[in-house]
Amino acid sequence: MRKRISAAAGLAALALTATACAGGGTSTPKADAGAGTKSGGTSSSSAGGTELAVPTGPVTITFEEAMTIGTLKPAMDKLVSDFQAKYPNITVKLQGEPDYATMYTKEKAEVQAGNAPTIGQAYESWASYFQSSGVLSPISELAGTDSPAAMSTFYKGIQDDLKLPDGKTWMWPFNKSVLILFYNADLMAKDGQSEPKTWDDYASVMKAVSKDGVTGSTIDPGSATAAAFGTQWFEILARANGAALYDKDGTPHLNDPNVVKALQYMKDLKDAGALATGKNYPGETALGAQKGVFDISSAAGYGFENKTVGGKFKLNITALPAGPAGAVNELTGTNIVVFKSASADQKAAAWAFLKFITSPEEQAGWAATSGYLPVTSQALSQPALQDFVAKNPYETAAVSELDTAFALPGFSWIFKCQGYEATAIQEALENGKQPSDALNTAQSACAAAKAQG
Amino acid sequence: MAGASRAGLYARRALAVFIGAAFVFPFYWTVVISLGRPGEFSNFPPVLVPHWDWSNWSRAWHSAPWLRLFGNTVLIASGTVLLCLVTSLLAGFAFGVLRFPGRKFLTLLVLAVLMMPGTVLIIPDYVLANDLHLLNTYWIQIIPWGASVFGIFLVRQFFLTMPAEILDAAALDGASRLRFLRSIGVPMVRPALVIIAINVFLGSWNSFLWPVIMTDSNMESSSTVQPIEVGLSTFANAEGTDFPGLAAAVTFTTLPVMVFFLLLQRQFIRGALSAAGGVRG
Amino acid sequence: MTTATEARQAAAAPSRPRRRGAARDFRATRWGWAYSAPAVLVFLAFVIVPTGYTFYVSLWKWNALNPALSKFKGLGNYRRLWDSTQPAFLSSLWHSLYFTGAMVLGGTALSLALALLLQRGGALLNGSRLAIFLPHATPVIATSMIWTWVFNAKFGLADWVLHSLHLPTSQWLQSSSSAMPAVVVYSLWHEVGFTTVVFLGGLAMLSDELSEAARADGCSAWQEFWHVTWHQLKPVTVFVVAITAITSLQAFTQFYQLANGGPAYATTTLSYLVYQEAFVFSDTGYGAALAVVLFAVTVFFTLVRRRTASGESHALV
């Protein structure tokens, strides 16, 4: 009997929130339409002035995600079950996809068909495409403000990464990481080499260890349609040389002398037989097969690397070497976006979910299981993560880079430009093209893509 | 002279065996990798003798509901074949035997279907499937593939080469067209139907991008409607560097279709042979 | 066969006018529409209407997520094709033609040679026949996974074979110059079984008398093949060429799985480019324009082929 009453109360509450928020829901898009050019900071903050309350009636939200593999799946499932334990009236339905390309295609198809998920994983450039098509809700619509309190606890690099070039917060952090250096400590010791601290060190160590069928490192340069860790390494090298790569408004500088220098550096390694290229995590494969010494990969790849190595030798992990412009790292992984088509209740539930998964406790468990980095330093004091850090000292160094790690500006066409970068790397490393020529081509193609919009 | 031709015969056989072995070798190598010890796959020269380490198999087997996926594939492929046979038979009969206004136009329309690149149709088809509430069902994997240009034209071809007397006799007997199709047409074009069935079955087994887009991947759920190739791809993305496990999965997902082929090889080959006959017009 | 049928019809015609009339009634019927309807409806819903939509979209800078934001461009997308550099449209077209040409020439020659080798054999040759057909019966996804390992430049079988034969090894899929040949090798391996069996079917129907006559006339084996066998196999060859050309122009999965269109666009064919622009880059209008061009190319080749192969007016393509 009591059950029935509470259910009825829940329904009434649901109806209330639904009507209360419907007004906000219709006014916000109008504000957006105007905001496109005028940025309309005042109107949006006043329009969405109140934070959505956690709904009390039953709500189901859908989450399009790609955490379907390895240790990522249990980590994801844990987030959901913890959340549902705390909010029994909210069901989070995961729509897992096998990989990011499929997920993006799925998300676009669903938006077109009018059945977008409530929330979905998205890279910055995807978010930009969704936003420019008017299918996203800004965070301010959920939080009542463009910079919710929780945001200030995130690392600086993460905070910056949540905004699109219009200056508004459109994303919430999810699986974030930076690149780190994995290496075979036994092979290094055998050759009497020590951990490289600068990229110049790295080049000389790579050359020294490349002999007897061993190649210093094998990278995936990426392809025209997808960046890979090799592409990001190139971007990091360029930034470490002091190049800007892209201005805030997206203007590319891909043929800047310091970018050319980065590609020349890679080409020299390749020509010296210290660098090879491959596909499908070739660095990890080579490292595991003891045919490679180094692998530059995401911190979140730790579980995979460890499994591939399988205890055959001592796997060491360290922060990336530094360049003339200091230590530079790049954010990897995606954020979460909220689709506009979701009902007010779903948005309210989604907001509760987003805040929940970025709370220090959940971030600690998530980071320790998935290998992704916690987005807030408060997670580091949690016991779950402290255990992990004790066993994996690299975590501290990696996390500290989240404050400074850069992300490419969030324009939909940046995705294409990364493809041009990857093509330039392939042209230089595999087809013997001069780095400056290859990058001139990339620069003009990227400028054309920017003009095309 | 006889010695020379005998030597020639042996040489021919040896060459045939060598070529056959070369075609099968990649499969053999996959099996070897799947039964190898960890890390062995990256040896050079490659390891060519299996070590009978079944742990890769059990690891791969337990990571996806393979039986369910396999069942889905068989169901989808059979449904598609059935539908295709009916549509091909009817349309092939119409185009090959019947004379009606607009026949030429329809023939050209169907021919044009063959030339449209499939990848670009997926998005409009997805929107349509959503409107029809067919997403994430078996139907969306069956109906759109339930007509085959190749099938229609093959059946048409058989009817075109049919001696006119047969039609005359049927017409004289006053047989209805449907009865004619059932009692004379079907037996006559049976070889064409066999090759259509086989081709459509393989095509269905082969489809990848379509089911990925049209269905939700929900790998551990017992209600997934996805076919086995999508499961394999998911597994490959998940365990991208676990070559032995992936080799095991490739082996046991490909094995059923190989057994199917070996059981029906006579029909396969006869079907392909009659395709040659059919095009001789 | 056609001529024989026609001859019979001609002979039968004067004596049986009534029958022909009945047959004409049997044939001429508006029900033809009903018989074609199931197939035509499927095509209409899932291919033809979406194709029309594709033509329409190709005239716009199309925002797939929010069509209201689309901008009309007229032929702008088609002009962009010519101006594109990364990758250049013409180079993608060339890759399509390169792949199709290699598959048509290589595939036809190889399957004809294999059919000649394997015809009229005992159990042993039958076994080889099965072995060659087997890859065709297995899915492209699964087998291209195998072949990415075969082509692995570090531990792959392909390099091992070259290495054992003391030939220079290759980077295969990692290098622009060898990536397309590698995809061709894979595709031949996968496709040649079917066309070989089709040729075997053609060979089985050859008339022995002509060959014997040729041999009696003192023709060499090569002359016999060229003037008698090959000549009679012409319709089969036309079929094989047509089927191979169309499937090759539209081949997608192996490019996706083996090479992702790379390295440096070396395996970006028109068909892959359609996918890349429309799906990965969400440039729907531009992708649609590419699809229309690919469609036009396919139609063009089909027409050319039909023109040049006269007397095959009712062949499949």
Automatic annotation (TrEMBL), chain A:
Chain positions covered by the region annotation Disordered: 26-53
Keywords: Signal, Transport
Predominant location category: other
Pfam families according to UniProt: SBP_bac_8
InterPro entries: Bact_solute-bd_prot1, SBP
Keyword match Metal-binding: no
Compositionally biased intervals (Low complexity): 33-50
Signal sequence segment: 1-22
Keyword 4Fe-4S set for record: no
Localization annotation: Cell envelope
Family under the similarity heading: Belongs to the bacterial solute-binding protein 1 family.
Name this protein carries in UniProt: ABC transporter substrate-binding protein
Automatic annotation (TrEMBL), chain C:
Keyword Transmembrane: yes
Membrane topology: Multi-pass membrane protein
Transmembrane parts of this sequence: 33-56, 97-118, 130-150, 183-206, 236-256, 285-304
Keywords: Cell membrane, Membrane, Transmembrane, Transmembrane helix, Transport
InterPro entries, sorted: ABC_transporter_permease (IPR051393), MetI-like (IPR000515), MetI-like_sf (IPR035906)
Every ABC transmembrane type-1 domain range: 93-305
UniProt feature, compositional bias: Low complexity: 1-15
CDD domains reported in the protein's UniProt record: TM_PBP2 (cd06261)
Keyword hit for Cell membrane: yes
Annotated SUPFAM superfamilies: MetI-like
Cellular localization per UniProt: Cell membrane
A Pfam family per the record: BPD_transp_1
Annotated region (Disordered), positions in chain: 1-21
Membership in a protein family: Belongs to the binding-protein-dependent transport system permease family.
Protein name: Sugar ABC transporter permease
Organism expressing this protein natively: Catenulispora yoronensis
